[in-house]
């Protein structure tokens, strides 16, 4: 995959859509950091009506929409409607922030190399649902967070950023979640900043490896 955000960039602020399904603390972190700065959140879409994430978006004056699974004949039809809405909003990056649905290849093909996700494990360990519970039952002593590009697999796209935390005595998923939250809330905005600055590119020797162009990032931030 090739990333060419810098060449594409026409404004200083990258228009992004955020997809949610629940609490929306990661959306909150994006609203407090990159929104109206390196990025502009042009829409928040939820798979579930009435979730706190939608209230956060409303409070910030960001347009919202709900795409419940039951209102469409199948996942593809829902993905199409969602992709249409994201395109209409003018988003050029789609950020999954606790979006609890899989997105099919036709959706991803409409936003090539432009869908990212935050996952509460050090990928490739513990993909899919209940990652923290999976890690606890495996008995690991190091937990962590990954921000990655989304491909058609489950949590299998290229890693953008990862951060670990040692919790050798952890037993309680809530305790681990509390430790991982600050990491998520730092890493997801940082990934958006990198992409907005055109500072991320695939290593030609191994396109799965995402290189960070520190000079591009510094130029953008300076
Ligand atoms: C986070 O733990 C994220 O890693 C996972 O879903 C959760 C979303 O939390 N993908 P929130 O809705 O952002 O508070």
Structural commentary:
It is a single chain. With 222 residues, this protein is an alpha/beta fold. The protein has one domain: 3-Layer(aba) Sandwich (Rossmann fold), CATH 3.40.50.170. 36% of the residues lie in helices and 24% in strands. The protein contains eight helices and nine strands. The strands form two sheets. Strands 3-2-1-4-5-6-7 form a seven-stranded mixed beta sheet, sandwiched between helices. A two-stranded antiparallel sheet has the order 8-9. Helix 2 packs parallel to helix 7. The longest helix is centred in the C-terminal third of the chain and has 24 residues. The radius of gyration is 17 Å and the shape is globular. It binds 5-O-phosphono-beta-D-ribofuranosylamine. The site of 5-O-phosphono-beta-D-ribofuranosylamine has 13 residues, from helix 2 and strand 5.
Describe this protein with a few key phrases.
222 residues; alpha/beta; Rossmann fold; two-stranded antiparallel sheet; 8 helices; disordered N terminus; binds 5-O-phosphono-beta-D-ribofuranosylamine
């Amino acid at each position: 995959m090739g990333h060419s955000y810098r060449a594409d960039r026409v404004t200083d602020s990258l228009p992004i859509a955020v997809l949610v399904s629940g609490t929306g603390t990661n959306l909150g972190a994006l609203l407090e950091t990159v929104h109206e700065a390196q990025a502009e959140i042009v829409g928040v879409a939820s798979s579930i009506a009435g979730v706190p994430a939608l209230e956060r978006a409303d409070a910030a004056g960001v347009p919202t929409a709900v795409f419940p699974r039951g209102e469409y004949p199948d996942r593809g039809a829902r993905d199409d409607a969602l992709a249409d809405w994201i395109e209409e909003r003018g988003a050029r990056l789609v950020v999954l922030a606790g979006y609890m649905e899989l997105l099919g290849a036709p959706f991803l093909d409409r936003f090539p190399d432009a869908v990212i996700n935050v996952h509460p494990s050090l990928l490739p360990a513990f993909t899919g649902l209940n990652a923290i519970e999976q890690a606890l039952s495996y008995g690991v002593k190091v937990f962590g967070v990954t921000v990655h590009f989304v491909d058609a697999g489950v949590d299998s796209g290229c890693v953008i950023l990862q951060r670990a935390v040692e919790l050798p005595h952890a037993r309680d998923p809530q305790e681990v979640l509390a430790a991982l939250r600050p990491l998520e809330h730092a890493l997801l905005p940082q990934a958006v900043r990198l992409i907005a600055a055109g500072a991320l590119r695939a290593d030609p020797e191994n396109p799965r490896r995402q290189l960070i162009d520190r000079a591009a990032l510094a130029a953008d931030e300076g």
